[in-house]
Amino acid sequence: GNSVTQMEGPVTLSEEAFLTINCTYTATGYPSLFWYVQYPGEGLQLLLKATKADDKGSNKGFEATYRKETTSFHLEKGSVQVSDSAVYFCALSEGNYGQNFVFGPGTRLSVLP
Amino acid sequence: DSGVTQTPKHLITATGQRVTLRCSPRSGDLSVYWYQQSLDQGLQFLIQYYNGEERAKGNILERFSAQQFPDLHSELNLSSLELGDSALYFCASSVLLAGAGNEQFFGPGTRLTVL
Fold first, then answer.
1. Does the distance separating the beta carbons of A101 and B33 come in below 8 Å?
2. In the predicted model, is pLDDT for residue B71 greater than 80?
3. Are the C-beta atoms of B113 and B58 separated by less than 8 Å?
4. Which of A18, B23, B35, B39 falls 20 to 30 Å from A43 in CA-CA distance?
């Protein structure tokens, strides 16, 4: 079946450091890929998405590129802020209507001032 | 604000009891998903409904059940509660259109504490 693997956390960075959170997936077809963010005490929010190979999703300074050849969708940000401290989930959806949705285990990011 | 609402926000109850969690999807979304999130942060998919019909089932216990009503709101029923059922329960909705990304939009969650 489909699956999503993320780098284990927690990840601790200093403010203004470069962030990479690795995500790789296994899917039988051509999934759409997502990154969600969960701030403390809140629900998950869609951060960015990509629906086909080589697409780049971007939002709030975060970027991720859909790499079909390496089945990856790594999340990057050039300069993190304390307010980026959260849990980040990589996810995929597949099926004619994207109904087969799979989340990764999440990666906790802590950014120190 | 995602447009998905969940009630109640917090729920404290005792072992053996039964509770009902409610979710209203975003306007226009036909599909509703339920997830359980435990303290170790992982999201466990429980069940999905589409326009009133069950579409997919995940790791949902037999003590748990759900339904989606004609007005598209959904309820998750948890019975014979155990201490281990204490968790955050999230509802998400999606429009589910062919060819679209079909991202899910999450509600704020219900925090269930079983004492």
1. yes
2. yes
3. no
4. A18
